[in-house]
Amino acid sequence: MPIRILIADDDVSIRRLLRRLLEERPEWQVCGEASNGQEAVFQADKLKPEVAVLDLAMPCMNGLEAAREISKILPRPFLLLLTVQEVSSQLINEARDAGFQGAVSKGTGAEVVKGIESLLCNQTFFKPGPAKLPAFPSSAAS
C-alpha cells in the first residue's frame, strides 16, 4: 500500500509540481491537496495521510497553526514544513514546537524528497541556512 501524502500550499503551480515530483516514486501517492491551512486540517482529518507537506505562509491558517491542529487529529503524522524563508534556528524551533519533524526551503524539489524519506525513516530533517532562489515558479511567494 503506498505512503499517502497531503500537499498544502496556496500556489497551485507549486502543488502540481510537488505532486508530479512525489508521484515519481511508485511507493508514494498524493492523496490530497489544500490551498490554505484550514483546508489542510480538514483534508488531514478526512484523508488520514502518513505525511503532510505544509507551506509556512498560507491564508486562513499558516503552516505552523495547521500543524498544531493536524497533530491533534492524527496519532503520529509526519509533518514537513515548506518555505521560501530562510530556515533559521528560530524557524526550526517554532516548527518543532508545532509538531514538524522537518523543514526545507522551496529551493529544490530534491530537498522535499530527501525530507520525506528521512521522516519515513523516523529521522528529523531540518536544513538550516539561507533560502535559495526557488526552483519552483517565481509566483511562489510563500
Write the topology of this structure.
Layout: E1 3-8, H1 12-22, E2 28-34, H2 37-47, E3 51-55, H3 63-73, E4 78-83, H4 89-98, E5 102-105, H5 109-120, E6 125-126
Parallel strand pairs: 1-2, 1-3, 3-4, 4-5, 5-6
Helix pairs in contact: 2-3
Provide keyphrases for this structure.
142 residues; alpha/beta; Rossmann fold; six-stranded parallel beta sheet; 6 strands; 21% strand
Task: Note down, in words, how this protein is organized.
With 142 residues, the protein is an alpha/beta fold. The chain has a single domain (3-126), classed as Response regulator (Rossmann fold), CATH 3.40.50.2300. Helix content is 39%, strand content 21%. It has a 6-stranded parallel β-sheet, with helices on both faces. α2 packs parallel to α3. It is globular and about 35 Å long.
Tally of alpha and pi helices: 5
CATH class: Alpha Beta
List low-pLDDT spans.
137-142
Q: Give the domain tally.
A: 1
Secondary structure class reads alpha/beta
* CATH architecture field: 3-Layer(aba) Sandwich
The largest pleated sheet is described as: 6 strands, parallel
How is this structure best summarized?
The chain has 142 residues and is an alpha/beta fold.
